[in-house]
From TrEMBL:
Entry protein name: HDOD domain-containing protein
Positions of the HDOD domain: 1-159
Domain of life: Bacteria
InterPro entries xref list: HDOD, RNase_Y/CdgJ
Native source species: Thiolapillus brandeum
Pfam families linked: HDOD
Alphabetical list of Gene3D superfamilies matching this protein: Hypothetical protein af1432
């Protein structure tokens, strides 16, 4: 018996532009057939990750919402950027974007016990930035994720990540995160992209710094649709709600 909320999300993503292939799925079984078992497994994992970003403490929940909005945006953009990159699965890039800040979870769960720390949001955010990457790797290893994804929390902020290696899912998420932090319709700038080893490894780099911006602009509706399905839209979330 499928969870109704999970089934609804699988149906929505099966009907989205990201997966639209031929006739629409009329029920959950058809949606799973359309997506494929491996895609369904990854999507169920992605939706489950979203459920971890929950707290009954209002201030912590506000941080969770911010983190999840950022993660869903990176995930959607990474899935688009992965398409022209040989050997990188857009679904894997989507999941990578969702988990790249997962190290915040154990820190925020612990912070809930210390109201004075929660009240000092700048300090808490510095702790997340400093300790989150190492904890993120530990969480993903414990959950049994692929090594490529386990490396993401520590590697995603590295502008010189494995410059001589072939492009992989980490590189796609690194570049997606660079673009996420920009105003709509703008690019990181040629000087920023040129300093990013991951950008130089992507095939899009040969077309100039505006190529990824143009690709993401063309796919903005698809990105926004994925963000909504993943639950990252700017809508109120009840603390503790599933």
């Amino acid at each position: 018996q499928a969870d109704p909320a999970l089934a609804a999300r699988l149906m929505r993503i099966a009907h989205s532009a990201f997966y639209r292939r031929g006739s629409p799925a009329r029920d959950l079984r058809a949606a799973v057939c359309l997506l494929g078992l491996e895609s369904t497994r990854r999507l169920v994992t992605a939706f489950a990750v979203g459920q971890v970003f929950r707290s009954r403490h209002p201030a912590v929940q506000d941080l969770y919402r911010t983190l999840w909005r950022r993660s869903t945006r990176v995930a959607a953009m990474a899935s688009i950027l992965a398409r022209p990159v040989p050997g990188v699965d857009p679904e894997q890039a989507l999941l990578g974007g969702l988990v790249h800040e997962i190290g915040a979870i154990p820190l925020l769960q612990r912070a809930e016990r210390y109201p004075a720390l929660v009240a000092e949001r700048p300090l808490l955010e510095r702790l997340l930035a400093g300790l989150g990457p190492r904890l993120g790797r530990a969480v993903l290893v414990r959950w049994g994720f692929d090594e490529d994804l386990c490396r993401l929390p520590e590697a995603v902020g590295n502008m010189e990540f494995e410059p001589d290696a072939p492009a992989g899912v980490v590189d796609v998420v690194v570049v997606a995160r660079l673009h996420r932090d920009l105003a709509p319709g703008t690019g990181p700038g040629e000087e920023v992209l040129d300093r990013c080893a991951s950008w130089r490894k992507l095939g899009l780099s040969r077309l100039g710094p505006g190529a990824s911006v143009e690709l993401l602009a063309l796919a903005e509706q698809e990105v926004a649709e994925l963000v909504r399905i993943l639950g990252g839209a700017r809508t109120p979330v009840r603390p503790g709600a599933g």
